[in-house]
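Work Package 4 report. The design task specified in the project plan requires that, given a folded chain encoded as structure tokens, an amino acid be chosen for each position. We show below one input record used in the internal validation round.
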């Protein structure tokens, strides 16, 4: 999320369209891998096995998504070629229409979310140790915070989402929740 957040900060401060697109590419370098990493983290946490071919397919899809972001100005696959850069006060703003790969990525985010929430809810239901349950609940809360912000952002439920990417607020919030799980409930299992 650090790469994603750094890229987004550079997007906000971009003075030109080229600077904005460079920052966008940096941001997506982190953004496209986050759902994949969270799913793998959840599977490790709950002890679920993911077939190698599925891991490879998901990694290939993430790489493909990043390639479509890199080439979007030429292909229109991620954002259609009708784009516009402007400045709103001090901030750079990018107006665009979403391309077909953007919609495929949005569907993949929903599938990642459902799979991760299912794994965590199932593990919480089965877990008998109270500390382990609290640990899982905090990870579930962190995933819910991020998932909710992604859904609100994609559906543009609030006026603010037309100007500011609210998912940037969910990343540090989820990180704090995970830190609580690490230090209060030994998420990394360092005390054993």
């Amino acid at each position: 999320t650090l790469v994603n957040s750094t890229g987004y900060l550079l997007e906000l401060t971009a003075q030109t369209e080229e600077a904005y697109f460079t920052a966008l590419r940096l941001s997506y370098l982190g953004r496209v891998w986050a759902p994949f990493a969270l799913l793998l983290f959840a599977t490790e946490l709950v002890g679920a096995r993911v077939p190698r071919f599925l891991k490879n397919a998901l990694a290939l899809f993430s790489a493909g998504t990043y390639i479509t972001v890199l080439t979007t100005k030429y292909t229109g696959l991620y954002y259609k070629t009708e784009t516009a850069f402007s400045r709103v006060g001090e901030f750079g703003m990018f107006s665009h229409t979403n391309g077909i790969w953007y919609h495929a990525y949005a569907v993949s985010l929903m599938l990642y979310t459902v799979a991760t929430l299912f794994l965590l809810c199932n593990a919480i239901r089965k877990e008998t140790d109270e500390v382990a349950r609290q640990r899982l609940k905090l990870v579930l809360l962190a995933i819910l915070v991020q998932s909710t912000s992604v859904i609100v952002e994609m559906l543009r439920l609030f006026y603010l989402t037309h100007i500011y990417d609210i998912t940037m607020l969910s990343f540090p919030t989820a990180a704090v929740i995970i830190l609580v799980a690490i230090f209060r409930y030994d998420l990394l299992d360092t005390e054993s």
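The mean pLDDT is 89. Validation will be extended to a larger panel in the next phase.
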